[in-house]
From TrEMBL:
Full protein name: Catalase
Domain of life: Bacteria
Domain Catalase core, first and last residues per copy: 29-417
Xref: PANTHER family: CATALASE, CATALASE-B
Role summary: Decomposes hydrogen peroxide into water and oxygen; serves to protect cells from the toxic effects of hydrogen peroxide.
Biased composition (Basic and acidic residues): 1-26
Family from the record: Belongs to the catalase family. HPII subfamily.
Keywords: Heme, Hydrogen peroxide, Iron, Metal-binding, Oxidoreductase, Peroxidase
Annotated Polar residues bias: 515-533
Swiss-Prot/TrEMBL cofactor(s): heme
SMART domains associated with the record: Catalase
The EC number(s) this enzyme carries: 1.11.1.6
């Protein structure tokens, strides 16, 4: 036996030597050693057809990726969630037979989870990243999951590339750095060599990637889906969540500092808003397109790296989601919730978007490893509110105790129960789309334009937003060590805008592009700029910087104007306790200059007063105010604080309300806070 074993080992070694001699180790193979001829495209029925289950390489690659993290999510590990309800504004019966969208006023329970994508469960929250925006509707026809992001497009066009993207953006494997950041070599190497990512990267470098809060960011279904009505008629549809508070963002320097001051900033904001009764509201909008118009545009509507401009295909607002209850147990609810884009109800169907087709496989596969087996649907947070019956049995974590001897379909022992339901009784029937084509690993030629919509996005930005994008590129690419990768990335984005790329090239120390043709796209979409979003004062946070013997007459009308406008006001002083004004009014201190920081507030109001350590108080207040000033925030000051304000860098200008007499200028203060940022402020003067 020992001799036979030695012979077998020698035979294996000789085979390995032969393979190496043929350079076999540099050829891509499956885990079984089969050489792979294609790793860019999943197997489809025609270039624009659905992905086929026959594609064993895609399934092996995606399965391995789905199982790479134990026990946290591979992506979207860091997040927070809340319960609520969705109410329909108007009937969608014309477009879909989905029961929860039929009657105006119908309310459906929901559970919504927001998340960052790249970081681990313990990462900070205000990193530059896309944000997940997943909503589970507990409808009477079963659970419907709308699993999206806060950006309407994605990096890649085909799901087979998703493991590559995430491997590139995650910490580099040789040193496990950096955490929750895309500013490193492998990410930008991926971008430069997979140029379908251009449009998404423009969003990633914009202010959209550093939202002010979960409550102030848009949500998108990303993919093209179908609505199907009770007559079997279909419309293509894209989903939008519009925040009632508008879409607002942080300043990059501010976002970085918040990560240190409060790494739980976004979850704390969501939790405290709901606890304080400031319920979170998003309106649901849909873009609808008749099937006959599928090829009407200069982009492919199935391409997940493309959006549908709202000016061409308007967003129809059809309902509102209100998040009004926090979770009782973070692990049991938020961590164990399992979303899946394949969780649909009659009237909602899929398109042949190749990224969506892959997700329909991947999500179930992921939950199997993350939640320990096939019964994750029985966890309380995932259970439908309607009854569910089938012949699935056993497995890890089984909670249902099934009775009876049959668990197979087509039986006589149990009168064939449970049995299938016909369409007229609510049985789900897939939309009968005609599909023709050879089995190919390819994408449609209509997917090949990677820069027109990236240019459209650039054209749509305000001057301030463009400055922020250039700064973001300069920071991110400046963190890349390989100069060749830096150069490739800069050259790539010259296709979007040559002036932008030239400025970035100068900042990161590479030659400006010369042999690149800028996209000729001239259109813009005002809906893409946050300058055009809703601007309201509701729930804005204001720090009042104050000490003993403060000016009562200045504080009281300010508090009334701010609270009446729905703002959240914190009294911030040198120490906790009670402060007394010149006329005897008292206030309780909420925070101290040590426990909070200006980056945690939207606006400041300086009152001043007599502190025990006056010199230190004045210096701390000056630092507090100076930072808010550099972050373009609204700042007000009481007349009695004139001397204190003279010790700051603040100059009269946009968003600066000196000697504020709120009793007569309350409206002006409220408007300033609602405006959020004053980009035309010359902070370097």
């Amino acid at each position: 036996m020992k001799k036979d074993h030695q012979v077998n080992e020698e035979s294996k070694n000789k085979q390995l030597e032969t393979f190496r001699a043929r350079d076999y180790e540099h050829s891509m193979t499956t885990n079984q050693g089969l050489k792979i001829s294609e790793d860019e495209h999943s197997l489809k029925a025609g270039t624009r057809g659905p992905t086929l289950m026959e594609d064993f390489h895609f399934r092996e690659k995606m399965t391995h990726f789905d199982h790479e993290r134990i026990p946290e999510r591979v992506v979207h590990a860091r997040g927070f969630a809340a319960h609520g309800e969705f109410e329909v504004y108007e009937s969608m019966k014309k477009y879909t037979k989905a029961g929860f969208l039929q009657e105006p006023g119908t309310k459906t329970p929901v559970f919504t989870r927001f998340s960052s994508v790249a970081g681990s469960k313990g990462s900070a929250e205000t990193v530059r990243d896309a944000r997940g925006f997943a909503v589970k509707f507990y409808t009477q026809e079963g659970n419907y999951d709308l699993v999206g992001n806060n950006i309407p497009v994605f990096f890649i066009q085909d799901a087979i590339k998703f493991p590559d993207l995430i491997h590139a953006v995650k910490p580099e494997p040789h040193n496990e750095m950096p955490q929750a950041a895309s500013a490193h070599d492998t990410f930008w190497d991926f971008v430069a060599n997979n140029q379908e990512s251009a449009h998404m990267v423009m969003w990633q470098m914009s202010d959209r990637a550093i939202p002010r809060s979960f409550r102030m960011m848009e949500g998108f279904g990303v993919h093209t889906y179908r609505f199907v009505n009770d007559q079997g008629e279909a419309h293509f549809v894209k989903f939008h969540w519009k925040p009632k508070l508008g879409a607002h963002s942080l300043v990059w320097d501010e976002a970085q500092k918040i990560n240190g001051k409060d790494p739980d900033f976004h979850r704390r904001d969501l939790w405290e808003s709901i606890e304080n009764g400031n319920f979170v509201e998003f309106e649901l909008g849909v873009q609808l397109l008749e099937e006959k118009d599928e090829f009407k545009f200069d982009f492919d509507i199935l391409d997940p790296t493309k959006l549908w401009p709202e000016e061409d295909i308007p967003v129809k607002i059809i309902g509102k989601m209100t998040l009004n209850r926090n979770v009782d147990n973070v692990f049991a609810e938020m961590e164990q919730v399992a979303f899946h884009p394949g969780s649909v109800v009659p009237g909602i169907d899929f398109s042949n978007d190749p990224l969506l087709q892959g997700r329909l496989f991947s999500y179930t596969d992921t939950q199997l490893i993350r939640l320990g087996g096939p019964n994750f649907h029985e966890l309380p947070i995932n259970r439908p509110v309607c009854p569910f019956h089938n012949n699935q049995r056993d497995g890890y974590g089984r909670q249902t105790i099934n009775v009876g001897q049959t668990h197979y379909h087509n039986n006589s022992l149990s009168n064939n129960k449970p049995d299938t339901a016909p369409e007229e009784d609510g049985g789900y029937v897939h939309y009968q789309e005609k599909v023709e084509g050879r089995k190919v690993q390819a994408r449609s030629d209509s997917f090949k334009d990677h820069f027109s919509q990236a240019r459209l996005f650039w054209n749509s930005m305000s001057d301030a937003e463009k400055e922020h994008i250039i700064a973001a590129f300069s920071f991110e690419i400046g963190k890349v060590n390989d100069m060749n990768v830096r150069k490739q990335a800069v050259d790539m984005f010259a296709n979007v805008d040559m002036n932008m790329a030239t400025q970035v090239a100068d900042a990161v120390g590479v030659e400006a592009p010369t042999d690149v043709t800028q996209s000729s796209e001239s259109k813009s979409s005002p809906a893409l700029s946050q300058e055009n979003t809703a601007k309201v004062p509701d729930t804005r946070t204001v720090a009042v910087l104050i000490a003993d013997q403060f000016d009562d007459e200045a504080l009281e009308p300010f508090l009334k104007a701010s609270l009446d406008a729905g703002m959240t006001v914190n009294i911030v002083s040198e120490k906790f306790g009670k402060l007394t004004g010149k006329n005897g009014a008292t206030v309780d201190v909420d925070e101290t200059l040590l426990t909070v920081h200006s980056v945690l507030y939207d606006a400041l109001y300086v009152v001043g007063g007599q502190a025990k350590q006056q010199q230190k108080f004045d210096a701390d207040v000056a630092d507090f105010v100076n930072e808010a000033y550099m972050h373009f925030k609204p700042i007000g000051s009481a007349p009695a604080a004139e001397g204190l304000m003279e010790k700051t860098k603040v100059k009269p200008g946009p968003g600066i309300l000196m000697d504020l007499k709120v009793s007569g200028e309350g409206e002006q203060w409220v408007e300033a806070v609602a405006h959020h940022r004053f980009w035309d402020r010359n902070i370097y003067a």
